[in-house]
Amino acid sequence: MYKKLEGMLNAEGRRLGIVVSRFNEIITGKLLEGALDCWRRHGGKEDDVTVVFVPGAWEIPPTAAKLAKSGKVDAVVCLGAVIRGATPHFEFVAAESAKGIAQASMQQTEVPMTFGVLTCDTIEQAVERAGSKSGNKGWDATLSAIEMLGIYKQL
After folding, report:
1. Which of 75, 102, 133, 149 is the most exposed, having the fewest neighbouring CB atoms within 10 Å of its CB?
2. Is residue 59 part of a domain?
3. Mean pLDDT of the chain
4. DSSP string covering 54-88, please?
5. pTM over 0.85
């Protein structure tokens, strides 16, 4: 018989770091609201949340890595919104942001890091993912962080 490990959805007594992009703030503000709502509804206190605002999605990975290494948080949630435009800029920013967050999350910090950066073709898609038809991806990323806190604790 195998041993089963699962994260409990309880943020009580934990400290959360959120790195959020100011670019596309109409979207990222909603992602942040969803993240904070999820944290509170799972027993976390807002006083135990540190929110770091960065200019754009490009700046999220190094900031998330530094926050994880700081010892001030138990988990890091990365929030942003990259929306396709008429130039290839979207591909570069979306890909490097995702790759950078993945690399930052694999550093030896013992701090789970989750990905809540929207990469959408249109503003309408972003709005849907920031709290309308498709739920709120800020909430989802925070829920994943809470679950991973429980898993890391058991490991």
Report:
1. 133
2. yes
3. 94
4. ESSGGGHHHHHHHHHHTTS-SEEEEEEEEE--SST
5. yes
SS3 label, residue 49 = strand
Cα–Cα–Cα angle for 59, 105, 11, rounded to 5 degrees: 100
By C-alpha distance, which of 17, 92, 26 is closest to 58? 92
Is 79:20 a contact under the CB 8 Å cutoff?
Answer: yes
Assigned domain for 147 exists = yes
The domain of 84 spans 16-154
Cβ neighbours of 134 (radius 10 Å): 14
Report the run of H or E that residue 139 belongs to, with start and end.
helix 137-154
- Give dist(CA 75, CA 16) in Å, integer: 5
- State the CATH number of the domain containing residue 52: 3.40.50.960
What mean pLDDT comes out for the span 57-73? Answer: 96
| Active site members | 89
Per the domain annotation, does 127 fall within a domain?
yes
Q: Are 7 and 148 in contact (CB under 8 A)?
A: yes
Domain count, the chain: 1
Tokens 């109409």, located at residue? 26
Q: At what angle do helices 89-105 and 60-69 cross, to 10 degrees?
A: 10
